[in-house]
């Protein structure tokens, strides 16, 4: 008869199983669940669209940007890896923007990780338009 498992051993095995499932599911994440494809509403024309820097319909700039990599709308200095120093001040709006992605045209915050990884990990790097069957650089 096998030995009875202790509580610590059960927890460790469960944790290992969860981590294995997380690693397996990272590569198969749904395109709609990425922060760069979050739903937003334009401030001027009130139409819903994907998270983009400029409105598709009226070309206005989005007032409250959402980071395309991490999904943040506010940068809190203590809990992030900011490239910009803003001691004691929460930066929101265009103050937290570091770049615009070439592929998905969404804002990227000034966090070191977001700036360095989003251009490589953007889910739309090799995307093609459903209607005209062209890639990003063909437009």
UniProtKB/TrEMBL annotation:
<keyword id="KW-0862">Zinc</keyword>
<feature type="region of interest" description="Disordered">
    <location>
        <begin position="1"/>
        <end position="23"/>
    </location>
</feature>
<feature type="compositionally biased region" description="Basic and acidic residues">
    <location>
        <begin position="10"/>
        <end position="22"/>
    </location>
</feature>
<dbReference type="GO" id="GO:0036064">
    <property type="term" value="C:ciliary basal body"/>
</dbReference>
<keyword id="KW-0539">Nucleus</keyword>
<dbReference type="GO" id="GO:0005730">
    <property type="term" value="C:nucleolus"/>
</dbReference>
<dbReference type="GO" id="GO:0005829">
    <property type="term" value="C:cytosol"/>
</dbReference>
<keyword id="KW-0677">Repeat</keyword>
<comment type="similarity">
    <text>Belongs to the NOA36 family.</text>
</comment>
<keyword id="KW-0479">Metal-binding</keyword>
<dbReference type="InterPro" id="IPR010531">
    <property type="entry name" value="NOA36"/>
</dbReference>
<dbReference type="GO" id="GO:0005654">
    <property type="term" value="C:nucleoplasm"/>
</dbReference>
<keyword id="KW-0863">Zinc-finger</keyword>
<dbReference type="GO" id="GO:0005929">
    <property type="term" value="C:cilium"/>
</dbReference>
<protein>
    <recommendedName>
        <fullName>Zinc finger protein 330</fullName>
    </recommendedName>
</protein>
<dbReference type="Pfam" id="PF06524">
    <property type="entry name" value="NOA36"/>
</dbReference>
<dbReference type="GO" id="GO:0008270">
    <property type="term" value="F:zinc ion binding"/>
</dbReference>
């Amino acid at each position: 008869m096998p030995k009875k498992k202790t509580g610590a051993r059960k927890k460790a095995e469960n944790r290992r199983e969860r981590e294995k499932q997380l690693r397996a599911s990272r590569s198969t994440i749904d395109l709609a669940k990425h922060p760069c494809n979050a739903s937003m509403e334009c401030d001027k024309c009130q139409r819903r669209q994907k998270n983009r820097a400029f409105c598709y319909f009226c070309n206005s700039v989005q007032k409250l940007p959402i980071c395309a990599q991490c999904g943040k709308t506010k940068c809190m200095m203590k809990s992030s890896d900011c490239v910009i120093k803003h001691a004691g001040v929460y930066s929101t709006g265009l103050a937290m923007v570091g770049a615009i992605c070439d592929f998905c045209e969404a804002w990227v915050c000034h966090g070191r990780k977001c700036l360095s990884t989003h251009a490589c990990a953007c889910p739309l790097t090799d995307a093609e338009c459903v209607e005209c069957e062209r890639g990003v650089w063909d437009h």
